[in-house]
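Re-run with default settings, no changes from the original entry. Doing this only to confirm the output is reproducible before filing.
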Amino acid sequence: MYNMKYLKPSDIEEIPVFNNWNDTKNIKLENGINFLKGNVEQLGCGDTSDFYKLPKIAKNEEIANILDLVKSTPFDEDPDSVDGMSTYEFYVDSPDIRNNKSNQNTMKLDSNNKYLKYRKKIRKKLIKIMDPIIKERINPFVRNLYSKDCKSERLCTPCYNFVRRYKEDERRTHPTHRDGHAFATVVISLSDFGEEYRGGIYVATAERYKYFIDLNRGDAIVHKHDLLHGVNVKNDGGERWSWILWYKDSTDCIDYSNEWYKDKAYQGIPVYQSLYATMVNSEEMIEWHIKAAENGFSNSMVKLARAYLKRLPSKLEFNPKEAERLYRLAVETTQDPHAQYGLAEMILFGLIKIETNSMLILLDKVIRLLEESAKGGNFFAMFNLGVAHLYGYTGKPDIKLANEWFEISGLPEAFMIISSHYVSINDKKTSEKYVNRAKRMGFGKKWRKVSRIRTGLGGASGVDINLPWPTMPNGNKPQKW
Protein backbone atom coordinates (compact mmCIF):
# COMPACT_ATOMS: atom_id res chain seq x y z
CA MET A 1 0.00 0.00 0.00
CA TYR A 2 2.86 2.38 0.73
CA ASN A 3 3.87 2.29 -2.93
CA MET A 4 0.63 4.07 -3.82
CA LYS A 5 0.96 7.69 -4.85
CA TYR A 6 -0.08 10.19 -2.20
CA LEU A 7 -0.93 13.82 -2.72
CA LYS A 8 1.76 16.39 -1.98
CA PRO A 9 1.13 20.06 -1.21
CA SER A 10 2.94 20.92 -4.44
CA ASP A 11 0.30 18.93 -6.36
CA ILE A 12 -2.49 21.32 -5.33
CA GLU A 13 -3.47 23.63 -8.17
CA GLU A 14 -2.67 27.31 -7.81
CA ILE A 15 -5.60 29.65 -7.22
CA PRO A 16 -6.10 31.63 -10.46
CA VAL A 17 -6.41 35.41 -10.65
CA PHE A 18 -9.90 36.76 -11.38
CA ASN A 19 -9.94 38.44 -14.80
CA ASN A 20 -13.60 38.43 -15.78
CA TRP A 21 -14.11 42.15 -15.13
CA ASN A 22 -16.55 44.17 -17.17
CA ASP A 23 -15.45 47.34 -18.93
CA THR A 24 -14.25 50.22 -16.77
CA LYS A 25 -17.16 52.38 -15.69
CA ASN A 26 -17.42 55.73 -14.01
CA ILE A 27 -19.84 56.85 -11.31
CA LYS A 28 -20.56 60.50 -12.01
CA LEU A 29 -19.89 61.89 -8.56
CA GLU A 30 -18.20 65.16 -7.74
CA ASN A 31 -14.72 63.73 -8.29
CA GLY A 32 -15.70 60.87 -10.60
CA ILE A 33 -14.73 57.36 -9.57
CA ASN A 34 -13.65 54.65 -12.00
CA PHE A 35 -14.50 51.08 -11.11
CA LEU A 36 -14.59 47.55 -12.44
CA LYS A 37 -17.46 45.20 -11.65
CA GLY A 38 -17.13 41.46 -11.16
CA ASN A 39 -19.30 38.69 -9.84
CA VAL A 40 -19.10 35.05 -8.85
CA GLU A 41 -21.83 32.45 -8.89
CA GLN A 42 -22.89 30.99 -5.56
CA LEU A 43 -22.32 27.45 -6.72
CA GLY A 44 -25.24 25.09 -6.17
CA CYS A 45 -27.69 27.93 -5.59
CA GLY A 46 -27.81 29.75 -8.93
CA ASP A 47 -27.42 33.20 -7.33
CA THR A 48 -24.46 35.54 -7.81
CA SER A 49 -22.47 37.87 -5.57
CA ASP A 50 -21.21 41.16 -6.99
CA PHE A 51 -18.02 42.97 -6.06
CA TYR A 52 -16.24 46.06 -7.31
CA LYS A 53 -12.62 47.04 -7.82
CA LEU A 54 -11.66 50.69 -7.37
CA PRO A 55 -8.24 51.25 -8.94
CA LYS A 56 -6.06 53.80 -7.14
CA ILE A 57 -8.75 55.06 -4.77
CA ALA A 58 -5.84 56.13 -2.54
CA LYS A 59 -2.63 57.77 -3.73
CA ASN A 60 0.84 56.27 -3.33
CA GLU A 61 1.93 59.09 -1.02
CA GLU A 62 -1.13 58.54 1.21
CA ILE A 63 -0.44 54.80 1.34
CA ALA A 64 3.21 55.38 2.21
CA ASN A 65 2.26 57.71 5.08
CA ILE A 66 -0.28 55.22 6.43
CA LEU A 67 2.30 52.42 6.31
CA ASP A 68 4.92 54.52 8.10
CA LEU A 69 2.48 55.06 10.96
CA VAL A 70 1.04 51.55 11.30
CA LYS A 71 4.45 49.90 11.08
CA SER A 72 5.56 51.94 14.08
CA THR A 73 2.84 50.68 16.43
CA PRO A 74 2.24 47.27 18.05
CA PHE A 75 -0.70 45.29 16.66
CA ASP A 76 -3.34 43.43 18.66
CA GLU A 77 -2.93 39.66 18.89
CA ASP A 78 -6.30 38.72 20.38
CA PRO A 79 -8.16 35.67 18.93
CA ASP A 80 -9.73 36.15 15.52
CA SER A 81 -13.43 35.35 15.16
CA VAL A 82 -12.86 33.41 11.93
CA ASP A 83 -10.08 30.99 12.91
CA GLY A 84 -9.18 31.55 16.57
CA MET A 85 -5.60 32.61 15.79
CA SER A 86 -3.88 35.90 16.64
CA THR A 87 -5.47 38.74 14.66
CA TYR A 88 -2.55 41.11 13.99
CA GLU A 89 -4.91 44.04 13.59
CA PHE A 90 -4.75 47.67 14.60
CA TYR A 91 -8.08 49.45 15.03
CA VAL A 92 -8.05 53.08 14.00
CA ASP A 93 -11.73 53.70 14.72
CA SER A 94 -14.74 51.82 16.06
CA PRO A 95 -17.83 52.54 18.18
CA ASP A 96 -15.92 51.39 21.28
CA ILE A 97 -12.98 53.68 20.57
CA ARG A 98 -15.30 56.62 19.94
CA ASN A 99 -17.08 55.91 23.23
CA ASN A 100 -13.79 55.49 25.13
CA LYS A 101 -14.51 51.82 25.81
CA SER A 102 -11.63 50.29 23.88
CA ASN A 103 -10.13 48.93 27.10
CA GLN A 104 -13.30 46.86 27.64
CA ASN A 105 -13.21 44.96 24.36
CA THR A 106 -10.65 42.66 22.80
CA MET A 107 -8.06 45.32 21.99
CA LYS A 108 -5.81 44.28 24.83
CA LEU A 109 -3.07 46.82 24.15
CA ASP A 110 -5.50 49.68 24.70
CA SER A 111 -5.94 48.56 28.30
CA ASN A 112 -2.20 48.81 28.86
CA ASN A 113 -1.00 52.30 29.76
CA LYS A 114 2.35 51.41 28.20
CA TYR A 115 0.71 51.51 24.74
CA LEU A 116 -2.52 53.48 25.12
CA LYS A 117 -1.11 57.00 24.86
CA TYR A 118 1.08 56.15 21.89
CA ARG A 119 -1.73 54.31 20.05
CA LYS A 120 -4.04 57.29 20.53
CA LYS A 121 -1.39 59.50 18.98
CA ILE A 122 -1.01 57.16 16.00
CA ARG A 123 -4.79 56.97 15.54
CA LYS A 124 -5.06 60.73 15.45
CA LYS A 125 -2.43 60.95 12.71
CA LEU A 126 -3.98 58.09 10.71
CA ILE A 127 -7.45 59.61 10.86
CA LYS A 128 -6.06 62.87 9.47
CA ILE A 129 -4.85 60.94 6.39
CA MET A 130 -7.72 58.46 6.11
CA ASP A 131 -10.76 60.67 6.69
CA PRO A 132 -10.47 62.66 3.43
CA ILE A 133 -10.07 59.42 1.46
CA ILE A 134 -13.13 57.94 3.14
CA LYS A 135 -15.36 61.01 3.01
CA GLU A 136 -14.42 62.32 -0.43
CA ARG A 137 -13.88 59.08 -2.38
CA ILE A 138 -15.03 55.87 -0.70
CA ASN A 139 -18.22 57.00 1.06
CA PRO A 140 -19.70 58.57 -2.10
CA PHE A 141 -19.10 55.36 -4.05
CA VAL A 142 -20.48 53.00 -1.37
CA ARG A 143 -23.51 55.20 -0.72
CA ASN A 144 -24.27 55.61 -4.41
CA LEU A 145 -24.01 51.85 -4.81
CA TYR A 146 -25.87 50.59 -1.74
CA SER A 147 -27.85 53.33 0.00
CA LYS A 148 -28.74 56.04 -2.52
CA ASP A 149 -32.46 55.46 -1.94
CA CYS A 150 -32.25 55.13 1.84
CA LYS A 151 -33.43 57.54 4.51
CA SER A 152 -30.70 59.87 5.75
CA GLU A 153 -30.22 57.96 9.01
CA ARG A 154 -29.73 54.70 7.08
CA LEU A 155 -26.86 55.84 4.89
CA CYS A 156 -23.92 53.44 4.73
CA THR A 157 -21.40 54.48 7.36
CA PRO A 158 -17.86 53.16 7.99
CA CYS A 159 -18.26 52.07 11.61
CA TYR A 160 -15.05 50.03 11.86
CA ASN A 161 -11.70 51.14 10.46
CA PHE A 162 -8.61 48.99 10.96
CA VAL A 163 -5.40 47.73 9.40
CA ARG A 164 -4.48 44.06 9.13
CA ARG A 165 -1.11 42.56 8.32
CA TYR A 166 0.21 39.24 7.00
CA LYS A 167 3.95 38.90 7.62
CA GLU A 168 6.46 36.11 7.25
CA ASP A 169 6.30 33.70 10.20
CA GLU A 170 2.99 35.19 11.40
CA ARG A 171 -0.50 34.44 10.12
CA ARG A 172 -0.65 34.08 6.34
CA THR A 173 -4.26 33.07 5.85
CA HIS A 174 -7.83 34.01 6.69
CA PRO A 175 -10.16 31.07 6.04
CA THR A 176 -13.06 31.42 3.63
CA HIS A 177 -15.96 33.28 5.25
CA ARG A 178 -18.63 35.95 4.83
CA ASP A 179 -18.57 39.28 6.68
CA GLY A 180 -21.99 38.63 8.15
CA HIS A 181 -21.74 41.54 10.61
CA ALA A 182 -21.01 44.16 7.92
CA PHE A 183 -23.51 45.61 5.47
CA ALA A 184 -20.58 46.31 3.16
CA THR A 185 -16.82 45.80 3.30
CA VAL A 186 -14.07 47.85 1.68
CA VAL A 187 -10.50 46.49 1.56
CA ILE A 188 -7.80 48.92 0.39
CA SER A 189 -4.46 47.33 -0.37
CA LEU A 190 -1.37 48.89 1.19
CA SER A 191 0.92 46.51 -0.73
CA ASP A 192 1.62 45.69 -4.39
CA PHE A 193 0.32 42.39 -5.75
CA GLY A 194 3.02 40.15 -7.23
CA GLU A 195 5.84 42.34 -5.95
CA GLU A 196 5.43 42.81 -2.20
CA TYR A 197 3.20 39.75 -1.74
CA ARG A 198 1.92 36.77 -3.70
CA GLY A 199 -1.62 35.48 -3.34
CA GLY A 200 -3.75 37.69 -1.10
CA ILE A 201 -7.48 38.23 -0.97
CA TYR A 202 -9.67 35.85 -2.95
CA VAL A 203 -13.36 35.58 -3.81
CA ALA A 204 -15.08 32.20 -4.06
CA THR A 205 -18.01 30.59 -5.84
CA ALA A 206 -17.96 27.92 -3.12
CA GLU A 207 -15.48 26.85 -0.46
CA ARG A 208 -13.44 24.93 -3.03
CA TYR A 209 -13.36 27.31 -5.99
CA LYS A 210 -11.45 30.56 -5.50
CA TYR A 211 -10.02 33.49 -7.47
CA PHE A 212 -7.35 35.91 -6.29
CA ILE A 213 -8.05 39.63 -6.72
CA ASP A 214 -4.89 41.46 -7.80
CA LEU A 215 -4.82 44.57 -5.65
CA ASN A 216 -1.91 46.99 -5.79
CA ARG A 217 -1.21 49.89 -3.45
CA GLY A 218 -4.28 52.11 -3.30
CA ASP A 219 -6.61 49.66 -5.07
CA ALA A 220 -9.79 48.63 -3.24
CA ILE A 221 -12.37 45.87 -3.43
CA VAL A 222 -15.94 46.61 -2.30
CA HIS A 223 -18.53 43.93 -1.51
CA LYS A 224 -21.57 43.10 0.60
CA HIS A 225 -22.05 40.46 3.26
CA ASP A 226 -23.12 37.74 0.81
CA LEU A 227 -19.67 37.42 -0.82
CA LEU A 228 -17.63 34.36 0.13
CA HIS A 229 -13.99 35.37 0.43
CA GLY A 230 -10.75 34.86 2.34
CA VAL A 231 -6.99 35.47 2.28
CA ASN A 232 -4.06 33.22 1.42
CA VAL A 233 -0.67 34.92 1.26
CA LYS A 234 2.25 32.78 0.18
CA ASN A 235 4.89 32.30 2.84
CA ASP A 236 7.80 33.30 0.60
CA GLY A 237 9.07 36.37 2.38
CA GLY A 238 6.42 38.81 1.16
CA GLU A 239 4.17 40.96 3.31
CA ARG A 240 0.59 42.05 2.74
CA TRP A 241 -0.86 45.06 4.59
CA SER A 242 -4.47 46.06 4.09
CA TRP A 243 -6.76 48.81 5.33
CA ILE A 244 -10.30 47.58 6.00
CA LEU A 245 -13.60 49.40 6.48
CA TRP A 246 -16.74 47.67 7.73
CA TYR A 247 -19.92 49.57 6.94
CA LYS A 248 -23.30 49.50 8.66
CA ASP A 249 -26.38 50.92 6.95
CA SER A 250 -26.83 53.33 9.84
CA THR A 251 -25.21 56.68 10.62
CA ASP A 252 -25.34 55.65 14.31
CA CYS A 253 -23.74 52.24 13.59
CA ILE A 254 -26.86 50.36 14.69
CA ASP A 255 -26.85 46.69 13.71
CA TYR A 256 -29.69 45.98 11.28
CA SER A 257 -28.31 42.62 10.11
CA ASN A 258 -31.50 40.79 11.12
CA GLU A 259 -33.33 43.02 8.68
CA TRP A 260 -30.75 42.53 5.89
CA TYR A 261 -31.17 38.78 6.04
CA LYS A 262 -34.85 38.32 6.85
CA ASP A 263 -36.39 39.90 3.75
CA LYS A 264 -34.19 37.99 1.32
CA ALA A 265 -34.49 34.77 3.31
CA TYR A 266 -38.26 34.90 2.92
CA GLN A 267 -37.73 35.56 -0.79
CA GLY A 268 -36.11 32.12 -0.94
CA ILE A 269 -32.48 33.19 -1.54
CA PRO A 270 -30.38 30.32 -0.10
CA VAL A 271 -27.34 32.27 1.14
CA TYR A 272 -29.64 34.64 3.02
CA GLN A 273 -31.64 31.75 4.44
CA SER A 274 -28.38 30.42 5.87
CA LEU A 275 -27.32 33.85 7.16
CA TYR A 276 -30.75 34.45 8.69
CA ALA A 277 -30.43 31.11 10.49
CA THR A 278 -27.71 32.70 12.62
CA MET A 279 -30.14 35.37 13.84
CA VAL A 280 -32.97 33.16 15.17
CA ASN A 281 -33.45 30.63 17.97
CA SER A 282 -32.04 27.12 17.65
CA GLU A 283 -35.31 25.55 16.49
CA GLU A 284 -35.87 28.11 13.74
CA MET A 285 -32.18 27.92 12.86
CA ILE A 286 -32.57 24.30 11.82
CA GLU A 287 -35.66 25.13 9.75
CA TRP A 288 -33.81 27.84 7.84
CA HIS A 289 -30.76 25.66 7.25
CA ILE A 290 -33.06 22.94 5.90
CA LYS A 291 -34.58 25.45 3.48
CA ALA A 292 -31.15 26.65 2.38
CA ALA A 293 -29.93 23.07 1.94
CA GLU A 294 -32.98 22.14 -0.10
CA ASN A 295 -32.19 25.14 -2.31
CA GLY A 296 -28.66 23.86 -2.96
CA PHE A 297 -26.61 25.69 -0.32
CA SER A 298 -23.87 23.22 0.63
CA ASN A 299 -22.70 25.16 3.70
CA SER A 300 -26.10 24.56 5.30
CA MET A 301 -25.88 20.87 4.36
CA VAL A 302 -22.61 20.65 6.30
CA LYS A 303 -24.03 22.45 9.33
CA LEU A 304 -27.09 20.21 9.38
CA ALA A 305 -24.85 17.15 9.17
CA ARG A 306 -22.92 18.37 12.20
CA ALA A 307 -26.22 19.00 14.00
CA TYR A 308 -27.31 15.40 13.32
CA LEU A 309 -23.98 14.27 14.80
CA LYS A 310 -24.65 16.46 17.89
CA ARG A 311 -21.61 18.56 17.05
CA LEU A 312 -23.81 21.64 16.92
CA PRO A 313 -26.57 22.38 19.45
CA SER A 314 -30.05 21.48 18.18
CA LYS A 315 -33.09 19.35 18.98
CA LEU A 316 -32.33 17.01 16.09
CA GLU A 317 -31.86 13.39 17.06
CA PHE A 318 -28.47 11.72 16.67
CA ASN A 319 -28.66 10.36 13.13
CA PRO A 320 -25.37 9.37 11.45
CA LYS A 321 -27.13 8.12 8.31
CA GLU A 322 -28.73 11.52 7.71
CA ALA A 323 -25.42 13.24 8.49
CA GLU A 324 -23.68 11.03 5.92
CA ARG A 325 -26.40 11.75 3.35
CA LEU A 326 -26.01 15.50 3.83
CA TYR A 327 -22.21 15.37 3.69
CA ARG A 328 -22.36 13.36 0.47
CA LEU A 329 -24.93 15.75 -0.99
CA ALA A 330 -22.61 18.68 -0.20
CA VAL A 331 -19.75 16.87 -1.95
CA GLU A 332 -21.97 16.17 -4.95
CA THR A 333 -23.18 19.80 -5.06
CA THR A 334 -19.94 21.76 -4.65
CA GLN A 335 -17.18 19.26 -3.76
CA ASP A 336 -17.34 20.89 -0.33
CA PRO A 337 -14.03 20.25 1.50
CA HIS A 338 -15.69 20.52 4.93
CA ALA A 339 -18.07 17.72 3.95
CA GLN A 340 -15.14 15.58 2.78
CA TYR A 341 -13.42 16.20 6.11
CA GLY A 342 -16.65 15.28 7.91
CA LEU A 343 -16.94 11.98 6.03
CA ALA A 344 -13.34 11.12 6.92
CA GLU A 345 -14.09 11.85 10.56
CA MET A 346 -17.24 9.68 10.47
CA ILE A 347 -15.29 6.72 9.04
CA LEU A 348 -12.69 6.99 11.81
CA PHE A 349 -15.45 7.13 14.43
CA GLY A 350 -16.98 3.98 12.91
CA LEU A 351 -20.17 5.83 11.96
CA ILE A 352 -19.82 4.85 8.30
CA LYS A 353 -19.35 1.15 7.73
CA ILE A 354 -16.67 0.18 5.22
CA GLU A 355 -16.88 -3.41 3.93
CA THR A 356 -13.33 -4.51 4.57
CA ASN A 357 -11.32 -6.43 7.12
CA SER A 358 -8.23 -4.39 6.33
CA MET A 359 -7.47 -1.39 8.49
CA LEU A 360 -5.08 -0.09 5.81
CA ILE A 361 -7.87 -0.07 3.20
CA LEU A 362 -10.15 1.79 5.59
CA LEU A 363 -7.41 4.28 6.40
CA ASP A 364 -6.71 4.77 2.70
CA LYS A 365 -10.34 5.85 2.19
CA VAL A 366 -9.91 8.35 5.02
CA ILE A 367 -6.67 9.69 3.57
CA ARG A 368 -8.18 10.06 0.08
CA LEU A 369 -11.05 12.08 1.54
CA LEU A 370 -8.57 14.26 3.42
CA GLU A 371 -6.58 14.77 0.22
CA GLU A 372 -9.68 15.96 -1.62
CA SER A 373 -10.54 18.21 1.32
CA ALA A 374 -7.00 19.65 1.31
CA LYS A 375 -7.29 20.41 -2.41
CA GLY A 376 -10.28 22.56 -1.47
CA GLY A 377 -8.26 24.49 1.09
CA ASN A 378 -9.27 22.78 4.35
CA PHE A 379 -6.44 23.50 6.81
CA PHE A 380 -7.58 20.84 9.29
CA ALA A 381 -7.40 18.25 6.50
CA MET A 382 -3.86 19.39 5.68
CA PHE A 383 -2.90 19.08 9.35
CA ASN A 384 -4.29 15.54 9.53
CA LEU A 385 -2.52 14.50 6.35
CA GLY A 386 0.60 15.53 8.22
CA VAL A 387 -0.49 13.28 11.10
CA ALA A 388 -1.22 10.38 8.72
CA HIS A 389 2.22 10.52 7.11
CA LEU A 390 4.05 11.19 10.38
CA TYR A 391 2.57 8.18 12.17
CA GLY A 392 2.52 5.86 9.16
CA TYR A 393 -1.22 5.48 8.66
CA THR A 394 -0.33 5.09 4.97
CA GLY A 395 1.65 1.94 5.77
CA LYS A 396 5.00 3.62 6.41
CA PRO A 397 5.97 6.96 8.02
CA ASP A 398 7.11 9.76 5.72
CA ILE A 399 8.40 12.58 7.91
CA LYS A 400 9.37 14.83 5.00
CA LEU A 401 5.88 14.72 3.46
CA ALA A 402 4.31 15.04 6.91
CA ASN A 403 6.23 18.26 7.56
CA GLU A 404 5.23 19.63 4.15
CA TRP A 405 1.56 19.16 5.08
CA PHE A 406 2.08 20.65 8.54
CA GLU A 407 3.81 23.66 6.97
CA ILE A 408 1.10 24.39 4.41
CA SER A 409 -1.69 24.02 6.98
CA GLY A 410 -0.49 27.25 8.60
CA LEU A 411 -1.73 26.10 12.02
CA PRO A 412 0.29 26.85 15.17
CA GLU A 413 -0.24 23.28 16.41
CA ALA A 414 1.38 22.05 13.20
CA PHE A 415 4.41 24.28 13.76
CA MET A 416 4.87 22.77 17.22
CA ILE A 417 4.98 19.30 15.68
CA ILE A 418 7.56 20.46 13.10
CA SER A 419 9.63 21.95 15.92
CA SER A 420 9.70 18.54 17.63
CA HIS A 421 11.15 17.00 14.48
CA TYR A 422 14.00 19.51 14.48
CA VAL A 423 14.66 18.80 18.16
CA SER A 424 15.00 15.11 17.26
CA ILE A 425 17.74 15.90 14.71
CA ASN A 426 19.51 18.37 17.06
CA ASP A 427 18.62 21.46 15.02
CA LYS A 428 17.78 23.72 17.93
CA LYS A 429 17.82 26.94 15.89
CA THR A 430 15.16 25.76 13.41
CA SER A 431 13.11 24.21 16.20
CA GLU A 432 13.01 27.53 18.06
CA LYS A 433 11.97 29.30 14.86
CA TYR A 434 8.87 27.11 14.59
CA VAL A 435 8.08 27.37 18.30
CA ASN A 436 8.23 31.16 18.09
CA ARG A 437 6.05 31.16 15.00
CA ALA A 438 3.47 28.97 16.74
CA LYS A 439 3.45 31.31 19.74
CA ARG A 440 3.03 34.38 17.53
CA MET A 441 -0.12 32.75 16.14
CA GLY A 442 -1.58 32.06 19.56
CA PHE A 443 -0.19 28.70 20.64
CA GLY A 444 0.17 28.51 24.40
CA LYS A 445 -2.26 31.36 25.04
CA LYS A 446 -5.13 30.54 27.38
CA TRP A 447 -7.64 31.36 24.68
CA ARG A 448 -6.21 29.42 21.72
CA LYS A 449 -7.84 25.99 22.15
CA VAL A 450 -11.20 27.42 23.22
CA SER A 451 -11.19 29.90 20.34
CA ARG A 452 -10.14 27.24 17.83
CA ILE A 453 -12.98 24.95 18.84
CA ARG A 454 -15.49 27.81 18.88
CA THR A 455 -14.55 29.10 15.44
CA GLY A 456 -13.74 25.82 13.72
CA LEU A 457 -12.97 26.89 10.15
CA GLY A 458 -14.26 30.13 8.70
CA GLY A 459 -16.25 30.84 11.87
CA ALA A 460 -18.27 27.62 11.49
CA SER A 461 -17.96 25.53 14.66
CA GLY A 462 -18.74 21.86 15.24
CA VAL A 463 -15.44 20.65 13.81
CA ASP A 464 -12.02 20.15 15.37
CA ILE A 465 -8.43 19.54 14.42
CA ASN A 466 -8.26 16.23 16.34
CA LEU A 467 -9.45 13.27 14.27
CA PRO A 468 -9.97 9.94 16.10
CA TRP A 469 -6.98 8.13 14.60
CA PRO A 470 -6.63 4.51 15.81
CA THR A 471 -3.76 3.28 17.96
CA MET A 472 -0.92 1.90 15.85
CA PRO A 473 0.33 -1.69 16.35
CA ASN A 474 3.41 -0.24 18.10
CA GLY A 475 1.14 1.54 20.58
CA ASN A 476 1.65 5.01 19.12
CA LYS A 477 -1.28 7.37 18.76
CA PRO A 478 -1.38 11.09 17.92
CA GLN A 479 -1.67 13.40 20.90
CA LYS A 480 -4.69 15.68 21.13
CA TRP A 481 -4.03 19.35 20.54
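The chain is about 40% helix and 15% strand. Residues 113-146 form the longest helix (34 residues).
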